[in-house]
Amino acid sequence: MKVAAPTTGRVMRWKPMLLAALVFLFADLSHAETATAASLAEQRAKAVTQVVLGILSYARWPVEPSQLRLCLIGPTEYADDLVKGTTQATGRPVLVRRLLAGDARIVGECDAVYIGKLSATERSQLFTALNGHPLLSISEADDPCTVGSLFCLRVSDQQVAFEVNLDSVARSGVRIHPSVLQLSRRRAAQP
């Protein structure tokens, strides 16, 4: 009578291969999650660019610039697509550059500012410097939109919306067409 050989030896040989397959599978899933997160971040950046360009297209300065100068102030999360440079739907080029919050060139060399994360002191100093100058300001960070910025972005995976601070608009010297409110409603309605 033959005695069957124990199968534990075969199982033991398969364990390293099974472990390697599981590691490969989880690594592949992790890569897919990272790729998906990167894709979402890229989509948000493109959506922010569209909204910012839309806002800028509804703005009129006392002296219209032939080339719009947009300055990014502070660390930003969604401005990567803007930095690549762009052109408005009207064909007007938008020159984008980064400046520090305390840079004195902001007032003279920027038509609009896109504000990232700043400390309360930096924000206060920036808005004091902007006061009395025709500059459009868009805030990216979680801003209650009650002081300073004309527009405050609300970015999510589904949409990019914005709030308008009418008091800041009135004091800015930049005229904003009333249709910008409809742009805000359309963005809010998109899935």
Structure description:
This protein is α/β, with parallel strands linked by helices. The protein has a single domain, classed as Rossmann fold. Helix content is 46%, strand content 19%. The chain has 6 helices and 9 strands. The strands form 2 sheets. A 7-stranded mixed beta sheet has the order 3-4-2-5-6-7-8. A two-stranded antiparallel sheet has the order 1-9. It is globular and about 45 Å long. Keywords: Signal. InterPro entries: YfiR/HmsC-like. This is YfiR family protein.
For this entry, give a set of tags.
about 190 residues, about 45% helix, alpha/beta, seven-stranded mixed sheet, two-stranded antiparallel sheet, about 20% strand, Rossmann fold, 9 strands
Radius of gyration: 25 Å
For the record, give the distance between the C-alpha atoms at the N and C termini, rounded to a whole number: 72 Å
**CATH topology name:** Rossmann fold
For the residues shown, what is the average pLDDT? 79
What is the helix tally?
A: 6
The string of secondary-structure elements, in order, is HEEHEEHEHEEEHEH
The low-confidence parts are 8-12, 14-33
* Number of domain modules: 1
- Largest pleated sheet: 7 strands, mixed
What level of helicity do the residues show? 40-55%
Structural class: alpha/beta
Oligomer: single chain
Tell me the number of strands. 9
Shape: globular
